[in-house]
Design goal:
With 469 residues, this protein is an alpha+beta fold. It has helices at 9-29, 37-41, 51-69, 102-120, 136-158, 225-233, 245-254, 291-300, 308-316, 448-451; strands spanning 183-186, 189-193, 209-213, 216-219, 262-265, 268-273, 276-279, 317-318, 323-324, 371-377, 402-405, 421-424, 433-434, 438-440.
Length: 469
Amino acid sequence: MTIDVTAAPDVVREQLAQELARVRERSRGLTTAILDDGELLAQHSKLMSPLVWDLAHVGNYEELWLLREAAGIEPMRPEIDDIYDAFEHPRSTRPTLPLLSPAESTGYLDLVRRKVLDSLQTARFEGAGRLHEGGFVYGLVLQHEHQHSETMLATHQLRRGQPVLGLDAEPPVPRDQVPLPAEVRVPGGSFVMGTDDDPWAYDNERPAYEVHVPEFWIDTTPVSVGAYRAFVESGGYDDERWWSRRGWEWRCRSGKRAPAFWIADGDGWSRRRFARIEPLPDDEPVQHVCWFEADAYARWAGRRLPTEAEWEKAASWDEATGTKRRFPWGDTLPTDQEANVGERRYRPTPVGSYPAGAAPCGARQLIGDVWEWTSSDFHGHPGFCTFPYAEYSEVFFGGDYKVLRGGSWATDSLATRATFRNWDHPIRRQIFAGFRTARDARPARRDRADRADRTDHPDRSAGAGESTG
């Protein structure tokens, strides 16, 4: 649903209550509704927390911000604050903590929520300070829990055992029969990057500022499984020419020869998706590739990853009117006609889907389906100001992190917009990430034989992080 923060306070309160109920239903649908206590307490991968940690963590975060900070209510369980502080304990060590049991976690969440709904009845949204303006603190908590639900889905993908997610009932995918060009042109010039207007935007999306971007070309759709398979089968993982120095070191150290969850199957390929083995779908956007893999493919194809500014301009800038859009199609939240978001299905949709979600430049699927790696390191915008706490964004600036854009099929609509910034280590593959490529606006591309002697590639990598947990 769309929350109209300019509506009458009672209307906003009702909308927020509905969204709080919806996100909690999603969290429980990925945990206590489908898994027993042993599965919830287990660590299914060293990369991820036990699911019961995520569950209690979202309750602790909600108590901190909606009860303690926003409503001034005394702490309910201060002794667990350290346990559920994501910055105090790396994911690999969280199983050793004295975690709340699944029953204790759900009881805690229910108690916090009852108090939150009580305090919501007297909440103010204007004139009560920046934390409350436009319902920002509620947006903070809602987006945080939805991000953890996506993290939970990544844990489910890494989990071994019997399938527990129902993958069969999927809505139809909006398609058209119009042949699409391989790439679209984005004119050069200045555009407004970031936002000053979105009431729920994070600090790293602010402030808005003018950026000049030279003319460039960008893929109409994300790179498909079939296109990436051609890179794999041509020996791309064994040819150092296509890899940055650090990327090649990662490839040799890790021994990887294909995206995560791909399985060599005789002369073909299959994949593991939420504990099920199925044929590899060539028409879907490739996902579960790290930044190094995306960068190597782009080099092999004679192209490059788009910069973050290029991606945002392609996704949000209407050249004809000189205006910025919140989404490629306009300012309204995505429905099932514009984008594959919100866990409507448990996989990306075929490339070229969602004609109603196209950007002014003609590119499709910039929102949803897969997070898209960019070439950019994670930094604050010029004039960045931390709000409401440094650990959300600022502590990750200048580190080993690359920026991802656009959201995935697992990202809720409340946490998708053209200015939303995600970030992670360039080695991360468990996230639902893919990419599209770009090129400078210049005469015809060189053929692959001409490109092959470019062995001294500059290493553009830097970046690493845990934006969703």
